[in-house]
Design a protein that fits this description.
Strand content: under 5%
Number of strands: 2
Distance between the termini: 19 Å
Number of helices: 4
Radius of gyration: 15 Å
Shape: globular
């Protein structure tokens, strides 16, 4: 597989995890931020669908979503739901950073746009504001397999 296809597949896998994670966020978030969570969920679903098309355009079969994902911490109410949303966005920023690096042209522009959107959402959810979003976690965390959630046991991953 090419580096570009690998990066697109990793972004698709991360979007699957983000969609799952926002399902949890939506179930626990307070009414005041429910519309914001819904907008983020919709944005990640749209990115997921676009990435699946890109994988097919590159001649491969899109990676499937796992049956379930283990969350990085228990989500038990609005405060932890907000924290999860911020973490989802921070982690997916790293994936899109990799995609920017692995692509050119329109795909690079799309990846940069997705990186920017994730970084803005992370800050809005109360995440860290970093000069180079997506790069902070590159030092120790492997975000290639997750965007805030990891495959659960028995999910085939």
């Amino acid at each position: 597989m090419s580096a570009e296809l690998d990066a697109v597949q990793a972004a698709l896998a991360a979007e699957h995890a983000a969609v799952y994670g926002y399902g949890v966020v939506g179930g626990q978030i307070g009414e005041a931020r429910r519309a914001e969570a819904r907008a983020a969920w919709d944005a990640h679903r749209a990115r997921r669908d676009s990435l699946a098309r890109t994988v097919r355009d590159l001649g491969a079969e899109p990676v499937a979503a796992n049956a379930g994902y283990a969350l990085p911490f228990p989500v038990e109410g609005p405060d932890s739901a907000v924290r999860l949303a911020a973490e989802l966005e921070e982690r997916i920023s790293g994936i899109y950073s990799d995609l920017v690096r692995a692509t050119t042209g329109t795909r690079r522009g799309d990846a940069a746009g997705a990186l920017r959107e994730a970084a803005v959402r992370a800050v809005r959810w109360g995440g860290d504001n970093v000069a180079f979003p997506g790069l902070a976690e590159r030092g120790g965390k492997d975000s290639a397999t997750s965007a805030g959630a990891t495959p659960s046991a028995g999910s085939g991953a």
